[in-house]
Design a protein that fits this description.
The complex is a heterodimer of chains A (162) and B (167). With 162 residues, chain A is mainly alpha-helical. Chain A folds into 3 domains: 61 residues; 50 residues; 34 residues, no CATH class. In chain A, 79% of the residues lie in helices and 0% in strands. Chain A is built from 6 helices and no strands. The radius of gyration of chain A is 52 Å and the shape is rod-shaped. Chain B is mainly α and 167 residues long. Chain B folds into 2 domains: 61 residues, Orthogonal Bundle (Rna Polymerase Sigma Factor, Chain: A); 94 residues, Arc Repressor Mutant, subunit A (Orthogonal Bundle), CATH 1.10.10.10. Chain B contains 8 helices and no strands. Chain B is elongated, with a radius of gyration of 17 Å. Chain B starts with a helix and ends with a helix. Classes of the chains: A mainly alpha (162), B mainly alpha (167). At the A-B interface, α1, α3 and α4 of A face α1, α2, α5, α6 and α8 of B.
Chain lengths: 162, 167
């Protein structure tokens, strides 16, 4: 026995030809399952028809502010993109500025401040400490004498004694 | 935009019964169209191009929803059960009153939700709107054989779901 479900599934219900309908009706008289299938296919067609007629009605009654809403969303999307770029650019500027400031500060610390200390040390090294100056200034706090001053004062005395 | 809104909304409502979802889909369609306007080479109509964007947008939205509940008799409302008892049979289905039409749309929506987005589109366009296989192929970019397979599968699934409800 040839069931008619294949005819039902292959063709839209509304497009079934008279010949196909005759075949279906002839078959469903003796086949309960196919009768049920035919009924379901017919109901499916009716439900779809109602759904489509509602779709047409809904499409006709669209929101009057829809256009405004879309244009606002489009503007937001556009300005949103530009704003993000601007924010990124200003953030980059801040980072570059802070890096430049840090580099300048390090430069000052490396070349200017250490340079002053070196000059003092060189001056101090060039000044000879005589025994007299050490002895005359012995009332000054010992902590102000360097080891070099003390040693040169002692050994200079020994050399003079010889 | 005013000119093409009805067309885009028609496509969106084909997929979404809910007004806000349809509006979201339509808005997404226009935003995509604005962004890709340069890529519209002028081959074919602008309306056809927009219809294709709208269809793909709706398909993607439905795919991401991933919701395909089964319809069982226990889930039906009293109105829906009564509707099925009344309209089953060759005569009852042809003449629906206003209340029955509302229930019919609810049931149709339940039925369509059980289908994949692609099957749903094929069934709605071919069986509901009377579109040809070629028209569906144009809108979706699918081959005609794919459209036929989708429609066949959707018809079969819809029929089987309703058969269970009618028993």
């Amino acid at each position: 026995m040839n069931h008619i479900t294949e005819i039902l599934d292959n063709t839209p219900f509304a497009d079934l030809t008279d010949a196909e309908l005759r075949t279906i009706h002839a078959h469903t008289k003796s086949c309960g399952d196919c009768a049920n299938a035919f009924e379901a296919a017919q109901l499916s067609s009716v439900l779809l028809r109602e759904r489509i007629s509602e779709t047409a009605a809904q499409a006709a009654n669209s929101n009057p502010f829809f256009q405004t809403r879309v244009l606002a969303a489009w503007r937001e999307q556009q300005t949103g993109g530009a704003w993000n770029f601007r924010r990124l650019w200003s953030a980059t500027g801040a980072i570059v500025a802070s890096m430049a400031a840090t580099t300048a500060a390090l430069g000052v610390l490396m070349f200017v401040a250490p340079g002053a200390n070196t000059a003092d040390q060189q001056t101090a090294a060039l000044v000879p400490y005589s025994a007299e100056s050490v002895l005359l200034e012995q009332d000054r706090d010992d902590s102000q004498l360097t080891n070099d001053q003390v040693i040169s004062a002692i050994y200079d005395d020994d050399d003079e004694g010889k | 935009m005013r000119r093409f809104s009805p067309r885009v909304f028609h496509v969106a409502h084909r997929f979404f019964r809910d007004r806000s979802q349809a509006e979201e889909a339509a808005q997404e369609t226009f935003l995509k169209a604005f962004a890709q306007l340069k890529s519209f080479a002028g081959r074919g109509s602008l309306e056809g191009w927009l219809t294709r964007i709208a269809t793909n947008t709706c398909l993607n939205m439905l795919r991401s929803a991933k919701r395909r509940p089964e319809v069982v008799t226990a889930d039906l409302s009293d109105d829906e059960t009564e509707f099925l008892e009344t309209v089953s049979g060759p005569v009852g289905a042809e003449t629906l009153n206003a209340e029955q039409r509302v229930v019919a749309v609810d049931l149709a929506e339940r039925l369509l939700e059980t289908l994949s987005p692609e099957d749903r589109l094929a069934l709605t366009m071919i069986d509901g709107e009377g579109a040809s296989v070629n028209e569906v192929a144009e809108v979706t970019g699918w081959s005609e054989s794919k459209v036929k397979v989708r429609a066949f599968r959707a018809r079969k699934k819809a029929r089987e779901v309703l058969e269970k409800l009618l028993r």
